[in-house]
Amino acid sequence: MDNAEFNQIRKKLGKSQKQLAALLGVSLKAVGSYEQGLRSIPAYIERNLIFFLIYHERKPRKDFICWEVKNCHQKEQCPAWEFQSGNMCWFMYGTLCNGTCDSTYTEKIENCRSCIIFNSLIQQDN
């Protein structure tokens, strides 16, 4: 996530920098630094922002679950299936998207950004 996307999500959420800082549990200075590109955005901040964006005005579709949409053959080994959270697969670590478990959040979110499940959740036109 870059600083422009961070700023865009904050505005979509309708939050001031101060409000977003409180929501994320970081300082106002940190939020300003993220938006200005002076500080890289940590994975946990990006993950929380995406979560807040998805839940801001709507709930994720419960009928649109990853193992069915992707016809997954490894679902029994995947935490998304274990916890019956196929619409929250993007949020969970250890999922087996593309047949393997990503080793870092950066790899995971990169895969998620090209996924039909993730993109259906972040689109504004649900």
UniProtKB/TrEMBL annotation:
GO terms for molecular function: DNA binding. InterPro entries: Cro/C1-type_HTH, Lambda_DNA-bd_dom_sf, Two-CW_dom. Residues 8-41 form the HTH cro/C1-type domain. It comes from the Bacteria. This is Helix-turn-helix. It comes from Desulfopila aestuarii DSM 18488. The lineage of its organism: Bacteria, Pseudomonadati, Thermodesulfobacteriota, Desulfobulbia, Desulfobulbales.
